[in-house]
Amino acid sequence: MQRRVAIIGVGYTPFRPITPDMSFKEMMFEAAQKAYEDAGVCPRKDIDAFVTCEEDFTHGRSIFNIHTPDNIGAVMKRIHTLPAESLYGLADAFMLINTGLVDVMAVESHSKASNMLTPDYLVAHAMDPVYNKPLGYNPYFIAGMEMNRYLHDSGVTREQCALVSVKNRANALLNPDAAYGDRIAMDDVLESETMFWPLNRLDMSSPADGGIVMVVACEEKARDLCDKPVWVRGVGWCSDAPSLETREWGEAVYARLAGEMAYRVAGVTNPRIEVDFAEVDDTFTYKELQHLEALKLCAPGQAGFMVEEGATQREGAFPVNVSGGSLGVGRLDEATGLQKVLEVVLQLRGEAGPRQLEDVSVGLAQSWRGVPANSGAVAILSNE
Amino acid sequence: MSEKIKSWPGTPLGEKEIKEKRILVTEWQPNLKYAWDTGAGYGRDFAELKKGKIVGTKCNKCRRTLLPARLFCEWCFRTADEWVYLKDTGTVNTFSVAYTGTAAERLKVPRIPALIEIDGSGGVAIMHLISDVDPWKVKIGMKVKAVWKPKQKREGAITDIDYWKPI
Ligand SMILES: [Zn+2]
Fold it and tell me: Residue A143's Cα: distance from chain center in Å?
């Protein structure tokens, strides 16, 4: 049995650099309550299964999954936690509903990044302990090296990367839930501190807190409960080789393969024509361009020109990261992927307020797990 | 080794080899620090503990008192209705006599973790410690009372109650 799958409700808390007014439990509750209200469901009666996406180390608790059911109405119900990027959670819901095992499911992820006081050490802890760790670098050198190789291979320039930062931070000014909206110029990025050359401070996104919950349902339930279902037409995910020595540095292979899977599941044969807009991972400026190429959303080697010509701006031919992306919204740890999905859902429902795009029917959301990972997922969503 | 087996093939490794670095030894101390937001529920709870009071919240749908004080009921999935002060006396629901510390070390004086049902609360319990008693005299159903730290030593934490002792 292959069933269509739709997102029928979304709820979230505003994305902020710090959230001292709420515990993670209260954050999850608020996002969940809003999502269930939006979907018109009662979690205790109507939701069959739940998935939360949380990594123990980012939250500072081992076995974090034991702390999530109560906050989203999942006590005494089926729930599992993925220590993974949250787009994988949507993929889980897609599979469980598509195969007929579950009718209505909730997907949750949240960031309390501000509570992690030693974030670079946390990433360092992810490195190979005997082969890479003893070298003693701050692990974000990986982004610098990757950017260096990507610029070398693609011909994309640092100026073009800087324009991604300018665009996304300006987009965030139209998103009241974004934490880092700003009006900056290309030179501000180029003249900001060198962090991991060629990566400057304003090429990097900053962390933010926030919670997101989505209600996902089979077609029958979606039509019954929801006026504006957003269909999950396809999902895909992929991991490249983990070792720094053997992975691909210039190309985002994981994004290319995840995209190919999602396009195949969704029946998309020409993404540049069939997809109207995208929210892709922009943890660093070059990542947006690298991911656009990997996802075949531009001709090979054209991502830099696309941003330069304004094609990826909100008013452009192919808007990218209208929400502000991670550069403008803030990087939400595991919840980053769901934030991308959230923006696509709001746009497809026509509920994106001052940043609403006109005449959009198919959107793409893509996530990357972040340094030092090279894995990620893709979802293709449609309002038709 | 046994009667029949006098030695295993291969090179034995022990603490000596590790200490002398005769094998590859790499040491790494994770530097992971967190500052968790208490939020409104735990925040008020801890502020009241500092004042020598136990506060919970109440859900008027299932009529349960919730402790730790939290803003929502996980059964009914709705916002809690009110704050309620609770007594600092109760009944032992269950307990253990812990002779083992976290580093698996033997404790000469055992610790007695206990779940204590607060009097007059309809069954809500607090997770704490029992002390000042012969461990073998503790019983399920025993009446206990909180022993608070002196006011100036309280810091807004669960440890502001030093322990519970039988009455
Ligand atoms: Zn209740």
Answer: 18
- Kindly report the pTM of this predicted structure: 0.95
> Which positions in chain A touch B77 (Cβ < 8 Å)?
32-33, 36, 42-44, 73
Sequence-distant (≥ 6) Cβ neighbours of residue A384 within 8 angstroms: A231, A361, A362
Of residues B26, B36, B71, nearest to A26 (C-beta): B71
DSSP structural state of residue B41: H
Which domains occur in chain A, in start order? Answer: 5-118+208-230 (3.40.47.10), 119-206+233-382 (3.40.47.10)
pLDDT tens-digit map of A148-201? 999 999 999 999 999 999 999 999 999 999 999 999 999 999 999 999 999 999
> Residue B73: enclosing H or E segment and its boundaries?
strand B72-73
| Alpha carbon of B76 to ligand 1 centroid (Å) | 4
Give the ipTM of the model, two decimals please: 0.91
Domains of chain B, by residue range, sit at 39-166
The DSSP symbol for A127 reads: S
| Alpha-carbon span A366 to A98, nearest angstrom | 20
Helices (H), A63-157: 87-98, 119-124, 141-154
Beta-strand (E) ranges in chain A?
Answer: 5-12, 49-53, 78-82, 104-112, 194-196, 199-200, 209-218, 230-239, 277-279, 362-368, 375-382
* CATH of segment(s) B39-166: 2.40.50.140
